[in-house]
Amino acid sequence: MHVLFSISVVFYVENMSAAKRIATIVVEPQKRHTATLFFFHGSGDTANGIKDWLHSVLGKEFSFPHIKLVFTSAPPRPYTANAGRLSTVWYDRKRIVPNVPEDRESVDLMCQQIGEFVEEETTGGIPKSRIVLGGISMGGGLALHLGYRFHQDVAGVFALSSFLNKDSSVYQSIQDANTAGSVSSLPPLFACHGKADPLVIYDWGKKYVDNFTAAGISTEFHSFPNLAHEMMEDELNLLQDWVMKRLPDK
Question: Residue 107 half-sphere exposure, CB side, CA atoms within 13 Å?
Answer without folding.
Answer: 23
